[in-house]
Design a protein that fits this description.
CATH class of one domain: Mainly Beta
Distance between the termini: 54 Å
Order of helices and strands: HHEEEEE
Oligomer: single chain
CATH topology of one domain: OB fold (Dihydrolipoamide Acetyltransferase, E2P)
Low-confidence stretches: none
CATH architecture of one domain: Beta Barrel
Number of helices: 2
Number of strands: 5
Helix content: 10-25%
Largest sheet: 5 strands, antiparallel
Length: 95
Amino acid sequence: MVLPPTLARVPRFADTTMVGKVSRMFGEAEVLVLEVQPFPLHGVTYYDVKVAFRDRSVSEARLGPESVPEGLQPGDKVLAMRAGNMIVSLRRPDG
């Protein structure tokens, strides 16, 4: 099968809907912290956090102390690192 020249140059993976899905599952996004609940477990403080993304979706995560910026409070804007559609860490933006 011979494709027209305009289609022959488009890679098969150029489906923008797939790119959008992958970018929501992996990478960093700015979020607004809604709730922060610290709790001790075996002498270490962990955090249950609830955040809102720009599209108004809300996500919750249970994170260790190495994954939460010091002094995190509701109302803070931070960057959420996602892997496999799960929040794995929060950090303050540089600057």
